[in-house]
Amino acid sequence: MTLINAYLIEENLKTIHSFETFGTENSMTFSIIGKAKSVKEAVKEIPFLKPNLIIVSASKENINDFEILSNIDFLEAKFIFIGTNEKEAYQALKYNAVDFLLKPINFEEFGTSLKKVMHHFERDLAYLQVLNGCNSEWLSQPAKDFFIVSSVDKIEIINFTDVLYCKADGKYTEFFLQNGDKIVSSKNIGEYQNIFPSASFFRIHNSSLVNVHKILRINKKDGLYCEFKNGVDLPVAKRKEKEFLKYLRVN
Questions:
Q1: Are strands 53-57 and 78-83 parallel, antiparallel or unpaired?
Q2: What does the alpha-carbon distance between residue 117 and residue 101 come to, in Å, rounded to a whole number?
Q3: Core vs surface per residue 60-72: b (16+ CB within 10 A) or e
Q4: Rg of the Cα trace of the chain?
Q5: For 123, phi and psi rounded to 5 degrees?
Q6: What pTM was computed for the model?
Q7: What is the pLDDT of residues 114-166, one digit of tens each?
């Protein structure tokens, strides 16, 4: 599953190779599905490939021909312009681009640009849902079986079923996965509690959000402790014990 399928309009081989390398290293979230040297060449393929992101070199020729792209059904494709000087950024803004990046591409900055693209997708989806009469309660529920953790250099796609538990670390959240990986997010644990499916996750403590389907056993000596397959025991807060047992339907 790839979230962003990009079409690259660029003639510099080094730049093309750098984007392809980034795609290989982040294949779960980003891929180059087509490329062309110019806008005129690209319009022959784009209607069939239907990318949701188009990366355009802001050359004079491409800027002059850019209006051609406006006649294509992009299925809500977004644009990122890349160029050699900041003056070209004006043209990017003129065409409502999500972002403009200077060459050579700094891929930490490109990662940030992809986060902006994702935010645009989410905003557009929410708008369409509202138009279709969806209420706010429905919109607040997770529509997919995964969530996203973004950093400057990558976008992690994590299935809810892969999460053993989450722990708060100050303003950060640590995700402990069943394959042994640990992923850190800059968002606080409360934000994730709001989007995680309540049928599977329970906040047993201010610092812990657990996947109840991954608990091996609950130890009752000196309080309640949730034991997981990685050998970790997480305490249930005293004030949460009764609520937690009721949630589990334990008499």
A1: parallel
A2: 14
A3: eebbebbeebeee
A4: 23
A5: -65, -45
A6: 0.55
A7: 888 887 777 666 555 554 554 444 444 445 678 888 765 667 888 899 999 99
